[in-house]
Amino acid sequence: MRCALTLAYNGTLFLGSQIQKETSNTVFGNLGLALSKLGIDSKVVASGRTDKGVHATAQVCHIDLPGFWSDLPKLQRVLNTMLLDSIEVKHIKAVDDSFHARYSAKKRVYRYIIKNEKSNPFEASFITFIEDVDFEKIQENIKLFIGEHDFKFFMKTGSDANSTTRIIYRAFAYKHKGTIVLNFEANGFLRSQIRLMVGALLKSTCQEIEELLAYKKQHKVKPAPSNGLYLAKIKY
Q1: Hey, which residues are catalytic here?
Q2: Residues 98-120: b if buried by 16+ CB within 10 A, e if exposed
Q3: Which pick of 47, 63, 205, 220 has the fewest CB atoms within 10 Å?
Q4: Helix (H, G, I), strand (E, B) or coil at 74
């Protein structure tokens, strides 16, 4: 039986989400170890990767369960007792065998959270603190990313994507409970694309962003820190 798992995790102490040969200290490395102890040797297939320090409120993955695991509520409870406190299995549901966590996904939603004030030790792992943020400028310039663009200047060096073109359906900024939230919804994102877009919104001019998107001129952009980034939703 194929199942889809929805996870939330605090990415602070993990070296990213993807399983790595060199370490088990990743989100899906930890999940894989817990599953193997339950006799589930299925490969964990995720909707996509998140980098070191990036969080998720609704990451999705799929696994194929052996026949003796048919009680999904029980499996969810057991996994949550075995996993680290920084990972939670929010939902498990049976899906069609054709479902693929990555390739069946239609849209992905990320949020980036900023506070326009001096950092404090209680929120520093979850919010990017930047003093003197120009909210109105961000609110206006974030609209530039909407549409189909070649994001070659907005990806981390060494990315192995077959195409650097992506479609951003929605991009907007708003204030919520003392924070500035940047919301991005697209058919997919390149590695570190969102952090580089946020970095451009924080430091680049409107003209510079337009030149980067048009692939006319490369301007130096520093990626925003990973701690403010959240994978918020996968739409199927």
Answers
A1: 51
A2: ebebeebbeebbbbbbbbeeeee
A3: 220
A4: helix
Asked if residue 57 and residue 10 are part of one domain, the reply reads yes
Q: Give the whole-angstrom CA distance, residue 45 versus residue 170.
A: 26
pLDDT one-digit tens code per residue, 203-222: 999 999 999 999 888 899 99
Q: Domain of 124: which CATH number?
A: 3.30.70.660
Instruction: Give the confidence band of 159 by pLDDT, cuts at 50, 70, 90.
Output: low
Q: Which amino acid, 179?
A: T
Range of the domain at 6: 2-94
Query: Quick one: which of 59, 43, 65, 60 has its CA closest to 10?
Result: 59
Q: Which of 48, 58, 42 is nearest to 17 (CA)?
A: 48
Number of folded domains that form the chain: 2
The pLDDT, as a whole number, for residue 22 is 82
The letter for the amino acid at 164 is T
